[in-house]
Each structure stands twice: as structure tokens, then as C-alpha cells.
Amino acid sequence: xxxxxxxxxxxxxxxxxxxxxxxxxxxxxxxxxxxxxxxxxxxxxxxxxxxxxxxxxxxxxxxxxxxxxxxxxxxxxxxxxxxxxxxxxxxxxxxxxxxxxxxxxxxxxxxxxxxxxxxxxxxxxxxxxxxxxxxxxxxxxxxxxxxxxxxxxxxxxxxxxxxxxxxxxxxxxxxxxxxxxxxxxxxxxxxxxxxxxxxxxxxxxxxxxxxxxxxxxxxxxxxxxxxxxxxxxxxxxxxxxxxxxxxxxxxxxxxxxxxxxxxxxxxxxxxxxxxxxx
Length: 278
Known about the structure:
With 278 residues, this protein is of the alpha/beta class. The chain has one domain: Nitrilase/N-carbamoyl-D-aminoacid amidohydrolase (4-Layer Sandwich), CATH 3.60.110.10. 29% of the residues lie in helices and 29% in strands. Helix 4 links the parallel strand 7 and strand 8. The longest helix has 17 residues, at 15-31.
């Protein structure tokens, strides 16, 4: 599986301009023979939208979304946008599209509302986490903060995910000379998830500055043994193409059968017992 990590800098609130940049990157990835291109969280809109959320929201019938479906006949695509439901709820969402169809749409479940984040003020929270089948094996899609909650990872692992894709908008925190806090946290987390869940992992983080906040990039990919296969430069709009061996999951699960030996009944029993106490 040849994957292009599209570490881009979106223009805040400019759906049309961002879409055009996506299409140019997709065309380049197709010309390189890629099977999948992954964009960051909210790649079509930018992050600090505030009240612009309602102006840039779309559903599958939107002309821009339809253009992504057209391009997906040539390559699988993961892109981030604001999804507007029939109930007129607005979600921080990412879709996996391929062969002219939406294979899966994930609505961000864990919306950060601390320090510089206030997603819960503008977005509705998603209510499910699901693995889904693709031509490249069973995949899971999580958006940024979702990754730092054990329920997300456990559900995907127990649902048979072999590949986890993570679009992100992680802002820069910490001092580069003393160790960059955000990149250290993500690299540690990504390596752990890949190695312990024995999954291939693709993490794509954006770059650029919005409202004085910088996003650090550093997109990367790991195989199912927790070995880093590729990494993009920090703070630079760029793209990285990586070959991910789907069979690495099989080899990793033979060598380290963590998934086989997981005792999910312990979790069920705990939740049942705790529920009974309440």
C-alpha cells in the first residue's frame, strides 16, 4: 500500500481554495502511483473556524464533496471537513472515500475544551467509533483528540482494525531546544499504538499559523511492529510518500500475539459490575 501523507496548510474558512489544493495534491499522488492519500483534520476549512463553522459545512451532496468522490475512482482519499447532518448538527468529520463511494465517515467523538481549544462550543460530538473494511484491510479512523482516550483504541482493536489513520490539528507546544512537548507526545503515542495494537498507523498533522497559533506538522507512519517508516519535516508544508506492507500486521501478530491474548471479558465484567453499583 503506497500512501501519501499530505501535510498541508489550509486557508481558514476558504473551502474553494482549500479544495483546489486538495485536488492538485491528489493528482500528484495519482501520478506517483499512490493507493491512498491522507489529509489533516479539517483540511478543507482550517481549524479556528468559530462561527465560520456554519458557512463551510457540507454533506455528501455538496459539489466539493462530489468532486472528491469523482477523484476517488483513481485513489482512496481521507479528508477532513465540517459535516452538516440532516438534523442540522455540525461535526468535525473525516471521510474515507474510494471507488466513487463514501466507505466511512467518522465524526470526532472527543472534542477538546481546555486551554486553547473550544470545539465543544461549535461542534456536536460524534457517538460511535467503528472499524471498516477497505481494499487495504480493515481500517479505523480517529481524529486527533480521539486517540488519547482508551475507549477509541480498544474499540478499534477489538473490531479487528489492521490500519489506523489519524488526521490531526495538533498545535505547537513546548521549546524545541528542550524537547517539543506536542511532537514528543504524539511520537510516543503513535509508536505505542502501532506496536501494542499491532496495526499500521498513519498520522497526518497540519502546518501553518491561525490566530497566532502554530501547527507543527511532523506527520509520520509506523508499521505494526512499531517501527517508524517515514516522517515529514516539522513546520513545513510538504508531502511524504511511504510504502506500507499490509502483511506486516500478520507478522507482528504472530511474533507478539497481544490481540490474541487480550481478555475482553475483564472489561465487560468491570463495566457490568460498575453499572450494577450505580
